[in-house]
Amino acid sequence: MTTSILLVLIVLSAIMEIRGEYRPTRTWIYIFKPLTTALILVLAVSRGITSGFDHSVVLIVLGLAFSMLGDVFLMLPSDRFIPGLLSFLTAHLCYIAAFTVKQGFGFTIWLLLVFALFGAILLRLLWSDLGKMKLPVIGYVLVIMTMGWQAWERYLAVGGLPALSAGIGALFFAGSDSVLAWRRFRQPFSSARLIVMVTYYTAQLLIALSVGG
Question: What is the DSSP letter of 23?
Fold first, then answer.
């Protein structure tokens, strides 16, 4: 299946899932939420087959697989927030490993400070509403900020469109999870689900498109 066909299928499936977020029943969500991430995973695998499977490709595929598991946990009617959080935490650890397996762990001080500041502001805004979730959320924020940091360290080290795609994808992921956290812990708002899902699928798609570079 070609990349262009997969991209069309991913966009159509994502649109159906987002529409399902605003329907009275969750049937469309149950179908199209895991399907969209599965199609993005297939895209990453197909690009890996074309370019050759190395450790970074395998790690990105694993990250997408754990993300799909997280999607399933978070879409269930009963509260599976902690298993979902752990699934996405594992996905981000896979992405960190993928971004550092070739060039090593980068350490550009100004880049570290940017992501540290972003994470600190997010935690400050959410802190009074986190309750017993303080430690899990701190851990998650540390991991996703590290993921974004190392994605951009990779771009600074190697350059190129694939590394840039992963870096932009990491920013979309941070934005998506920030809105999700705000909706859950602070203040739900009507467009939150739309923003979360559009930025989430954009993030995963950009990371998948970084495969092969």
Answer: S
Q: How many CA atoms lie less than 13 Å away from 40 in the CB half-sphere?
A: 31
Q: Which two tokens stand for residue 149?
A: 């940091």
Would you state the structure tokens that stand for residue 202, as one six-digit string?
């954009």
Q: Is the pLDDT of residue 213 over 70?
A: no
pTM: 0.95
Residue 106 sits at φ, ψ, to 5 deg, of: -80, 155
Contact in structure between 89 and 140 (CB atoms under 8 Å) = yes
CA–CA separation, 59 vs 97, rounded Å? 7
pLDDT tens, position by position, 107-140: 999 999 999 999 999 999 999 999 999 999 999 9
Helix crossing, 134-158 with 81-100: angle to 10°?
20
Three-state DSSP class for residue 145: helix
Instruction: Give alpha helix (H) positions in the chain.
Output: 3-21, 27-51, 55-75, 81-100, 109-130, 134-158, 161-181, 192-209
User: CA–CA separation, 159 vs 119, rounded Å?
Assistant: 25
The two structure tokens encoding residue 20: 């399902």
Question: How does DSSP classify residue 25?
Answer: S
3-class DSSP assignment, residue 211: coil
Q: Is 167 left (phi over 0), alpha (psi -120 to 50) or beta?
A: alpha
CA distances from 42 to 35, 175, 199 (A): 10, 24, 19
